[in-house]
Amino acid sequence: MLLLFLLSLASCSGNKKENSDNVTEDLKAKKMLQGIWLDDESDEILFKIQGDTIYYPDAENAPVYFKIKKDTFYTYGKEVSRYKIDKQADHVFCFHSLSDNVVKLHKSEDDNDSLLMMGHRTTEVIPTYSEVTKRDSVVMYNGKRYRAYVYVNPSKKKVIKTSYSDEGISVDNVYYDNVMHICVYEGRKMIYGHDITKDTFLGVIPNEFLKNAILSDMEFYGVGKIGFRYQATVCIPESSVCNLVNLIIGFDGKLSIKIAQ
Questions:
Q1: Where a domain ends, among 117, 144, 175?
Q2: Residue 190, domain extent
Q3: 150, 197, 204, 208: which sits with the fewest CB atoms below 10 Å from its CB?
Q4: Which CATH number goes with the domain that contains 201?
């Protein structure tokens, strides 16, 4: 339902520069918007406004800051979007979509709607890994026994991904990055032990890609004369767009990194 709403909601957004910096915010209009708003036709919750923030029923959609200036409703996600207001009252909110259709909303008076929105005041995205995952590999090389570990640690570092509809409407989604701890032992002697984050690959993977990606996985692929071979997967969330990076840990404990061919 949110996607359909955004398809009709979106107006001049993205690369257009907002020219209302010097326009005073309408605090009275903002106060009238406080509460839960429903679509007139479907009676479904479209969003909740609390303070200066819009919260959506879908926890994967990031809350966004908003303002009202003159007759325009501005939202400030990864991009600035603006919507021309057609009508506003205590329990009515109507505005123009990009196609110049009027989106008609009314304020909820049902306590159950408040319960449905409870818990969406912050984004609660389920990460790929919800707890520390340990992988332990035992390998032999030149008569010596080694243990190679990978610990996948979910982090609280958020990555915002803007998705676009066919019409070019943006929706901000939130994902959590991971930290990979890898270590190698010969008996009780630690050869290597460090955290690997996506920032480890600065200079190997383009910065713009890294900014929008998460460190998705880390696998141990064996040992040979050059050392212990790992491969990291760095991906744009919910897509097949990934970079694979080879990591070699030498027997001297030195790490080398190279993009996979």
A1: 117
A2: 133-259
A3: 208
A4: 2.40.128.510
Amino acid at 68: I
From first to last of the 261 residues of the chain, give the pLDDT tens digit: 544 454 455 444 444 444 556 678 999 999 999 999 888 888 888 888 889 888 877 767 777 888 999 999 888 877 788 888 999 999 999 987 656 778 889 998 876 666 666 655 444 444 455 566 889 999 999 999 999 999 998 888 888 887 653 333 346 788 889 999 999 999 999 999 999 999 999 999 999 999 989 999 999 999 999 999 999 999 998 888 899 999 999 999 999 999 997
pTM: 0.61
- Tally of structural domains, the chain: 2
Co-location of 149 and 107 in the same domain = no
Residue listed under structure tokens 């818990």: 119
Apex 163 CA angle, 157 and 168, nearest 5: 150
- The CATH number of the domain where 7 resides is what? 2.40.128
If asked whether residues 139 and 253 sit together in one domain, one would say: yes
Which of 219, 182, 220, 214 has the alpha carbon at shortest distance from 201? 214
